[in-house]
Design goal:
It is built from 20 helices and 29 strands. The chain has 6 domains: 3-141, Rossmann fold, CATH 3.40.50.140; 152-199 and 502-597, Topoisomerase I, domain 2, CATH 1.10.460.10; 203-286 and 426-445 and 470-488, Topoisomerase I, domain 3 (Distorted Sandwich), CATH 2.70.20.10; 300-418, Topoisomerase I, domain 4, CATH 1.10.290; 606-645, no CATH class; 647-703, no CATH class. Helix 5 (143-171) runs antiparallel to helix 18 (560-572), helix 6 crosses helix 17 (539-551) and helix 9 crosses helix 12 (403-418). The chain binds one DNA strand of 25 nucleotides through helix 3, helix 5, strand 23, strand 24 and strand 28. Residues 142-593 form the Topo IA-type catalytic domain.
DNA sequence: CAGTGAGCGAGCTTCCGCTTGACTT
């Protein structure tokens, strides 16, 4: 009886179901639960003198899995490797085959011992047809792909296990970490912070006019009933001279565009006077109908971004919820970078759309999406519901399905179905309002002509933009009111979880399975902190990033991974030898390491604060430990005074005893707010909204 | 599924990527 090997128990279950239906129950399907053989954690385990030979071990937590695998291997002669079609999947297959005694390892060349009994099947879609087709023409293990994975693994190990100890010495903290992915993620945040500091904030004014058309009702963009008669437009030029200037900043990651006007506070008053005295006419009214297409279905990265902006979920939370939905069979696999939707789903979606919204909303031909990124590996489908049932999560009787699960399910459902809906048709109006003295105001608005997919994905937008513009060129308008707004130019924004994941994915840094863990890691290590929902580097994080960027500029660059991936593709296609690739990386790297090790200077990130040590009077300093920040006496080791670093919320007092409110954490690192006088006072709150309206300490409430 | 408060830190750490079940109530 053939033994089929896959990664995940869910995939195994699906296979069993399909095989049973096809009356092929003489297969046994076994799940490895991911990698089973890897480098040990407690040492480098790379032999640099022997072509980077790795010493793999069975992963401690997988011993049971491997015992079971070996037992099954003895019982079943024919082995069918059915792991994911990408690099990591091929590697899992390889190590499983090795443990079953079917691979001869002779570094750096490995070979398959018994090709008759070892087969590899590959498919991108788990359906009965794909499976039976694959079973009919099995292939062989792709050793070049395995080598690409090994090169990736070894390179990451070398980078991580060389750079980390360097940091331990450099910073005097033996728990620090560095790596190809995490250090670049950190640098992205650090460089942005510097760009923000460097940014010069400037004040400027914007002038908006509200115009009335006595004869006809004109509509204001985003109109409310009360102001329906008014048209709001922005002053943009005089005699062809624009007031607005646009600027583009080149940033570490991408660029930043911003605009300001040349209008200063001095000019505003006289401008207002002149504008109010003028008479106006609508000119250059243009209509332009454009199609708006639905966004692609969710990948891991897009789902994390969508859930963050829509519901404020952290990536960790989103992945946890998605995992639960996946395990209950409600959605497809949630760690994916693919836009592919199975043909079965696409056809069912068409039926669903026609039944739910009518034929006007469905497509004749299915719509597909191209991956933007060449770095995608597309081992899975896009994330989509498994059933065309909008209420599938709602109906679940599982008590562990919460409102959050249901919300995330809806997000996934709507987005996937929307991909197969007609595009929306939007009429864009742009027009100017010109005064006799040469002043020009400009405005634009949109009207939804046909809602298409927006009906499902953004009904509010449809509702707010359904009325046509009731103006035409030549209409005479009166300026009813002026609104002068003082603004400041804004620096590029800090990253949040969504924008960080977006840039990581764009640059191919990290994989769907690692985005959330990486974001957790740089916070747990105290390299970055969240200021509300935005990342700011700590002193420690900035020092680490600057040091590494200075000494290992190539690795800390955004295109390092992209170049590595290109090379790994060449290895997979047998155009490049993977040992040569490793050597080409490692030779200059070791040189840089040697130079860095010669510099014995130590970087100090400790920062003195105003507060004095109660024991000896020396200033206290903020220090970093693996458990977070703490305050310690600056005359350590002479004085060993320490105390916790507390984060007070300014301007809030405890409603029970008037004490200061501070941020605390539960044992499981969940954030909450509490009174400084704990345990005497037990006031606590989970959410900002609960403490938002608390009184300030100096201003106790009277009633 | 939720889950609400120590005191530690300054000797044996650290990588990336693939999986799920893992605490306790």
């Amino acid at each position: 009886m053939p033994l089929i090997i896959v990664e995940s128990p869910t995939k195994a279950r699906t296979f069993n179901r399909i095989l049973k239906i096809a009356n092929k129950d003489d297969y046994y399907v076994f799940a490895t639960m991911g990698h089973i053989r890897d480098l040990p954690g407690n040492e480098m385990a790379i032999d640099f003198k022997n072509k980077f030979k790795p010493s793999y071990q069975i992963i401690a937590k997988k011993k049971k899995v491997v015992t079971e695998l070996k037992k099954l291997g003895k019982e079943n002669k024919e082995i069918i490797l059915a792991t994911d079609p990408d690099r990591e999947g091929e590697s899992i297959a390889y190590h499983a085959a090795f443990l079953l005694g079917l691979i001869k390892e002779n570094w750096p060349e490995s070979s398959v011992k018994d090709g008759k009994n070892l087969k590899r099947i590959v498919f991108h879609e788990i359906t009965a047809r794909a499976l039976s087709e694959a079973l009919e023409k099995p292939e062989t293990l792709r050793l070049n792909l395995v080598n690409a994975q090994q090169a990736r693994r070894i390179l990451d190990r070398v980078v991580g296990y060389e750079l980390s100890p360097l940091l331990w010495k450099k910073m005097g903290k033996n728990w620090l970490s560095a790596g190809r992915v995490q250090s670049v993620a950190l640098r992205i945040i650090v460089e942005r912070e510097k760009e923000i500091r460097k940014f010069k904030v400037e004040n400027y004014f914007q002038i908006f006019g509200k115009f009335v058309n006595a004869k006809q009702k004109a509509r204001l963009p985003h109109a409310t009933p009360e102001v329906e008669k008014m048209v709001k437009a922005k002053l943009t030029s005089k005699n062809g001279e624009p007031y607005e200037q646009k600027f583009t900043l080149k940033l570490f990651a991408g660029e930043y565009q911003y605009a300001k006007t040349t209008i200063t506070s001095v000019q505003v008053k006289s401008l207002e006077k002149e504008l109010l005295a003028d008479t106006y006419e609508v000119v250059d009214l243009k209509e332009n109908i454009v199609s708006r297409f639905p966004p692609p279905p969710h990948t891991t990265s897009l789902l994390a971004q969508d859930a963050f902006y829509r519901y404020g979920y952290s990536s960790k939370m989103t992945m946890r919820l998605a995992q639960d939905l996946y395990e209950r069979g409600l959605i497809t696999y949630h760690r994916t970078d693919s836009f592919n939707l199975s043909t079965q789903f696409v056809f069912k979606a068409k039926d669903y759309i026609e039944k739910e919204f009518g034929k006007k909303y469905s497509l004749e031909k299915p719509r597909g999406y191209k991956t933007r990124s060449k770095l995608a590996q597309e081992a899975h489908e896009a994330i989509r519901p498994t059933k065309l049932d909008a209420k599938a999560a709602e109906k679940s009787e599982d008590k562990r399905i919460t409102i959050n699960h249901k919300r995330l399910y809806s997000l996934i459902f709507n987005r996937a179905v929307a991909t197969q809906m007609k595009e929306a048709s939007i009429k864009n109006f742009t027009f100017s309002i010109a005064g006799k003295k040469g002043y020009v105001f400009e405005s634009e608005l949109q009207q939804v002509v046909f809602d298409g997919f927006l009906r499902l994905l953004n009904p509010k937008f449809v509702e707010n933009n359904s009325v046509p513009l009731n103006l035409k060129s030549g209409d005479q308008l009166e300026l009813d009111e002026l609104e002068s707004l003082e603004s400041q130019t804004k620096p590029p924004p800090r990253y949040n979880e969504a924008s960080l994941i977006k840039i990581l994915e764009e640059k191919g840094i990290g994989r769907p399975s690692t985005y959330a863990p990486i974001i957790s890691l740089i916070q747990v290590k105290n390299y970055v902190e969240k200021d509300f929902r935005y990342f700011a580097p700590t002193k420690l994080g900035e020092a680490i990033s600057d040091y590494l960027a200075g000494s290992f500029a190539d690795i800390l660059n955004l295109d390092f991974t992209a170049k590595m991936e290109e090379n790994l593709d060449n290895v997979a296609e047998d155009k490049l030898n993977f040992i040569n690739l490793l050597e080409e990386f490692n030779t200059p790297f070791q040189k840089e390491l040697k130079e860095s090790k010669q510099d014995k200077s130590v970087i100090d990130v400790e920062e003195e604060i105003k507060e004095k040590c109660p024991r000896c009077g020396s200033p206290l300093t903020v220090r970093f430990s693996r458990f977070g920040k703490f305050l310690a006496c600056s005359s350590y080791p002479k004085c060993k005074f320490t105390k916790p670093f507390l984060r007070f919320i300014a301007g809030k007092a405890c409603p029970k005893d008037g004490g200061k409110i501070l941020v605390r954490f539960t044992k499981s690192r969940k954030k909450f707010y509490g009174c400084e006088n704990y345990p005497k006072c037990d006031y606590s709150a989970w959410k900002w909204s609960e403490i938002k309206n608390l009184q300030s300490p100096s201003n106790p409430s009277s009633p």
